[in-house]
Specification:
This protein is of the alpha+beta class and about 270 residues long. It has 7 helices and 13 strands. The strands form 3 sheets. It has a 6-stranded mixed sheet. It has a 5-stranded antiparallel sheet with strand order 9-10-11-12-13, with no helix packed on it.
Amino acid sequence: MAHTAQVILACIAVTALYGDQKKLTNDEHMELLRGLTAEYATVKMPLPRSKKPLNLQTDGDFDTMEWTAANAKFGPAARMGDLVQITKVDVLSDRIILQINGGMRTHGGWKDHVSVGMGGPGAVMNPINQNPTNAPGGTTIALRFKGPIGEITSADVKKMLKPVLDFDQQSPTEQFTETLTPEVKKAVAEKHAIVGMNRDEVILAVGRPVSKDRETKDGVESEDWIYGKPPGRVTFVTFVGDKVVKVKDTYAGLGGTIADTPKQLQ
């Protein structure tokens, strides 16, 4: 009876611990995607190819047998000192999936499967493509947390990946930022889009949109990039050609109703 009571109390304690952890907000989720996608890193230990994500704990620990078996079966994806790029990021409840150099591909090169902005095949998913990687292939890493992911930033994730990937060198994104006009650089730092930005600058500032919508009015074709989902703040970034002509922040309720953004959410 006493043992049963102890088990119940332990379950309640674990539930309370997870309940106290704050879930990622939409803005925090977007910051993770924006801060990790397309970033370059130097490999600090051999990375094997793998069809399934290679598990890596947040403290840098990993299953040596799993990694060794993957390397024996599929060969290396990157060697120590190689430059690699994160080409896709998926943030789940208790792990972050990082695709490296397009992941493991059975046909064609990884660069044939990623693109930038509205570009075509062969362009790396990055505002710039000046530092091609020298790694022989690609793979996928699952950064696993001990519970639900709470408040965390892309900088925190890079520190967790430090035993495997070194992001300390100036990244191509940082290099690209140095070429921006003062107005655009300020908007990027403040994480919002402004009129006059091009598509790559918008991606750098606020990441990729949740959805897109095109329309033609009076012979002019425009495209809305939509950020956020109801209930909460929803931002419409309108392009004509490659330039932003309008940025509108709204608040969408559960029923899809649109209103001015409440002050506390601005």
